[in-house]
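Lab notebook, page 48
Experiment: co-folding of the full assembly
Goal: obtain a model of how the components sit together before planning crosslinking
Operator: M.T.
Materials (sequences as entered):
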Amino acid sequence: MNKRRVYIIVIIIFILAFFAGNFVYPFYKIPGIGGYLNFLKFIPENSFKLGLDLQGGTHLVYEADLSNIAQENKSQSMEGLRDVIERRVNYFGVAEPLVQIQGQRLIVELAGIIDPVEAIEQIGKTPFLEFREEKENYEEILENNQKVLETGEGQFEEPFKPTPLTGKYLKGAEIGSDQTTYQSLVLLEFNEEGAKIFGELTSKNVGKPLAIYIDGILISAPVVQEAISGGKAQISGKFTLNEAKDLASNLNAGALPVPIKLISQQSVGPTLGKISLEESLKAGALGFLAILCFMIIFYRIPGFFASISLIIYVVLLLSFFKLIPVTLTLAGIAGFLLSMGMAVDANILIFSRFREELKIGKDYLNALEEGSRRAWPAIRDGNMTTILVGLILFAFGTSFVKGFALTLIIGNLVGMFTAIVITNNFLRVFAGNKIGKIKWLW
Amino acid sequence: MAGSVFSVLYFGLKPGIDFTGGSILEIDFEARPENQTIQEKLKDLNLADIVVQPTGEKGVIIRMKEIDENTHQEIISKLGELSKVEEKRFESVGPVIGKELKQKTIILIIFSLIALLIYIAISFRKVTWPVSGFQYGIISIVTLAFDVSIPIGILTILGKFYNVQFNIPIVTALLTILGYTINDKVIVFDRVRENISRIKHDNFENLLNQSLNQILTRSLSTGSCTLLVLFAIFFLGGETLRYFSLTLIIGIIVGTLSSLFLAPPLLLGWLNLSRRKTSS
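Observation: model returned without errors.
Model output:
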């Protein structure tokens, strides 16, 4: 590898690190010199994604009682349940609520929420489905609403009023398609009582919309084509296949009272979250400095370059965390700090070999090549085993463990890269150089 | 190691609520009342056994069986009568989840050990004299088990006297020890592997000795670096990470030492044992 190529690589590395560093913490914000760096504003600003234990929040696990549901409907019910709960959760104005299905369970994560009590209450209700019909002055109301929309004054009024038909009469809903137009439809089936009420409603409202509400939100208002007495109906309204699917599962969710039970709850107040964050960052910074000192004292100049390499490592890693984005939990930060220690390891391995080779009498460049080559199997195996454990942790763990495993794995991968590529190239710069010949520096 | 096993059996692991189910409530008081007073106040709520533990300057941690949201709020309002309170955190885990977690963890540990065994066996497959790659794998796993059992043992003692709980972060720490110290063992064995192919060899014991001497500085350096970071976390990091980092510290110290002073002798011992068998 000739010298020029090495220089180019080193310069590229520095430029990369500069931009990555800026991504992590916008430089132009630094008082004083920051002003000169305003041209960097084009880099998008982003904040780290913090886990619940760092920004405060609530983690809830619900178990759905599917004992009354037939096997084929089970996952549909869960999907419907998930959608409804997600809609409810969105009320709270939480930045990024998480609602996930896990088998028969639903996991809800609300970040930064101040009052978990209300959240739990809201979520706990079974979804409520109802059918509504037009109010008498329907046209008027629509006109008024239009005016409100245009002028921004006045209040919207609900154009529909409730009817006796609610979810408890619905036996089920599924998707179908029109034979002639191949459009997606939603097919409803009511039980006996429901069929009667439905028949009355539809004959009253032929040609008019019949609104379907879930939890007080209007889902769909298809127009009634004709009076229906069989208790079976189809809703056609130019649905796409997905829209039809959604409506069907929502109806099923509203129709079947799937009880849910709260089986686990964890909430962290925001102050505790902030304190934890600050303390772990302090610890991290201190540990980092300690490593730098150690490296320089023990390994002298290579140690110095390893330190720079380590700084770049931290910067790169943090930008990865922002990019992907990785949710940082307390454990995640611990994983990050731990992998810092391991990243140094790779460097140390190369250096020990390097020194050994120098001792045998090889010249600088050869010693470096040999050192790196011989250190590689150990680095590879060592990091791979840690990554292996990380993968297993990731696959099986709870969110706490997942965050840790992810930072550990990414940290190790980036660590391997920086030690091998960056440190190596830094050292190459001095090959054949006068400084390289001064043995005691190394 | 024997001491560790003894300790586990005698004191029993003190499982945290992550495993048994239950609740933890951490609150800060403006003027913290005595444990007794708190116990008195909550007596009427029928909570059965509750453990009250002061923490920090103004805080209290209350552990009890699983409670529902209503009881949770009642507790807070009752305690609020004693002095103004601020809830720091609250966890309530049902017993079903707890049991699942226990099973999952055991599976995790076994899985990891097997996976590591396979990886090492494959990685060292080209080494056949005088011990096969597979044997390296087994010895590594045995040493790992040792590495993990020591911190567990210490934790049980701490559990007995300081009420330290065995919860998810701790289990994560243990699994991390597995991942980390295996690194150390691999590096020692890697040196042995290399010396076998490079240096004229006849006596395995001498070879082991040589390899160890070469690798000594490196292992201690790396271990120290990671320990530096961990100590920083231990002293400065938040409460939740305290025992997490302690477990890691103990594990890594033990692990580094065992890679140097336990694994090679075991390897040698096994070799001698099988040699004796074939010769007799």
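Interpretation: The mean pLDDT of chain A is 72.
Next step: discuss with group before ordering constructs.
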